[in-house]
Amino acid sequence: MEIDGTGRREGKPVLYHWPWYWHIPRLVPWLLLMLAIVLRGANRDRRALLIFLPPLALSLLGRRAAMLLGMPSLSVNEFGVIFGSLVVGTALLWLNADTLARFHGGMRLALSLGFLLLGILATGLSRDSTLSGEAATLLPLSLFPGVILLMILAATRRLVRRCYDPARFLLWTAICSALFSVAGMTVLANMPMLSQEFGSTGREILFTGLALGLCLYAIDLPYVLLMFGSPFFRQRFRLWLGARPISQPHEPIPRL
Predict the structure, then answer these.
(1) Which of these, 27, 28, 48, lies nearest to 256 by C-alpha position?
(2) Total-model pTM
(3) Does residue 88 form part of some domain?
(4) For a 10 Å CB count at each end of the chain, is N or C smaller?
(5) Cα–Cα distance measured from residue 114 to residue 89, given in angstroms and rounded to the nearest whole number
(6) How many CB atoms lie within 10 A of CB 131?
(7) Are 177 and 153 in contact (CB under 8 A)?
(8) Which among 82, 76, 242, 102 is positioned nearest to 159, based on CA atoms?
(9) pLDDT tens across 94-136, in order?
(10) Does a structural domain hold residue 69?
(11) Hey, is 3 helix, strand or coil?
């Protein structure tokens, strides 16, 4: 036992042993994406592994951005759960864009919501394998921005009118992100139980809505850039848009 300069007693350091398998839950979102590639024949292509690039980049930048904004550590963790669930859910959406293109209306919306819920659940399990703590509380909160994200994509798809134009798609995505996010926050702010949480003044609603829209746009942007840059995903993106597919010469598919 030692006494430091402040008069406090310090004992011997305590070493904690963390078994390697305790880290497995953290890999659940990545395992889900890998299963989505391996279990579906159309995704068994090495080029499909590019879907890991956006979530890797967003997972690194998202937490860093939250810390730079001066969020408390508890808020950073909460933000990480919600942000991470949307990132994984969006990856599943774009990985299965060709499947979504086969359906219309309510069925497409139901499938999109299902992919999003899988991403939310996987992220929750990665933070709390029993879903009995903070993660279980944050999962329902992830659904609200997730639904707004689906509305943004659906509205953008309709506004571009089956036209494959990257600049036009990105512009309309930005506009829809701002409009739908502000509208969503306005609805929440007028709910009696949530009005104190989100603020009641027009300036607060506008600021919070625009911040949410910026966050959703930041999540979707790297995936959309991947849709434009990768021939593998570009074909699926055009199918999802309803644009005329590109005729390409036959070439062997690089299977996994």
Answers:
(1) 48
(2) 0.81
(3) yes
(4) N
(5) 9
(6) 14
(7) no
(8) 242
(9) 999 999 988 888 899 999 999 999 998 888 787 765 555 666 6
(10) yes
(11) strand
